[in-house]
Design a protein that fits this description.
Number of helices: 3
Radius of gyration: 25 Å
Length: 126
Amino acid sequence: MKNSAVVRVLPSSIGKRSAPKRLKPPKGLTPEARRWWREIQAEYSIRDSAGLLLLQTAAEQFMRMRAEEVVIDAEGSTIKDRFDQRKQHPAVLNAREARSAMLKCLRALNLDLEPIRDRIGRPGGV
């Protein structure tokens, strides 16, 4: 008698799709940025590597923007220079740059950000 290989097929695995595994947010994000990353990733089903990189960069910029906002809240939006003149706090510029970079990443993801309407036709006037 020859040795023959026996292949077993489990009936429970036939015709079933495995659920896509839930992706974890990148390390180094704050809890708020992680929550934001999870919401956007799940809502728009972002799974490709380029999309995930853009989302990670957007989350990092979101985190940076929030950190600068904390500094602005604590120290104010202006400071005095060496001539005792008021000038814009450097954190304001940093927050603006972080917000701009975050929005550019979101635009590059090409997300449909228009809210879903519950009825057909033009939106009602105000």
